[in-house]
Specification:
Structural class: alpha+beta
Radius of gyration: 17 Å
Distance between the termini: 46 Å
Helix content: 40-55%
Largest sheet: 4 strands, antiparallel
Strand order of the largest sheet: 1-2-3-4
Order of helices and strands: HHHHEHEEE
Shape: globular
């Protein structure tokens, strides 16, 4: 019974790391690390389709590029990249309403009711090279749209 219980607990932990919000954050962070803009676009909110042409591509190239450039400036070009998910939390109703106002102002044609939920993942990123290292927090704001998690913002 104890062995079965341990197996179930391990299985639940493994499954939760590859599905749901944690699994989504892992996909985003792997694409972030690799500067895989196409994957980030495929994971992005539908709101980007209501902006100017290439809105998602421009946004992710800028946001992710800035983050990666800052790592290179701090430790060099051939660094080792690692990350850990510190926390994933849902926004309060008040903060979610503020986000909706911001989204409506930037993307007036986007139907805000498509967003079922907004969550934020705080991810600790560490880059190391030749004895130098730097730690930064990357915040991923994500929305649940049509029962799928999507990227709203990366900071």
């Amino acid at each position: 019974v104890v062995i079965i219980l341990i197996i179930v607990i391990v299985a639940v932990n493994v499954i939760s790391n590859f599905t749901g919000r944690k699994g989504f954050v892992r996909k985003v962070m792997n694409a972030y690390r690799d500067y895989d803009i196409e994957t980030l676009i495929s994971l992005s909110s539908d709101m980007y389709y209501y902006g100017y042409d290439d809105a998602a591509e421009t946004y992710f190239e800028s946001a992710v590029g800035y983050g990666l450039d800052s790592f290179e400036e701090s430790v060099g070009h051939n660094y080792k990249f690692s990350y850990a998910i510190d926390e994933i939390y849902d926004l309060s109703e008040r903060r979610q309403d503020e986000f909706f106002d911001t989204i409506e102002a930037a993307y007036p044609d986007f139907d805000i009711s498509m967003i079922e939920q907004i969550s934020i993942a705080e991810v600790s990123v560490t880059v190391e090279q030749d004895g130098k290292s730097i730690d930064r927090t990357v915040s991923i704001t994500m929305s649940k749209e049509d029962n799928e998690w999507r990227i709203l913002y990366i900071a």
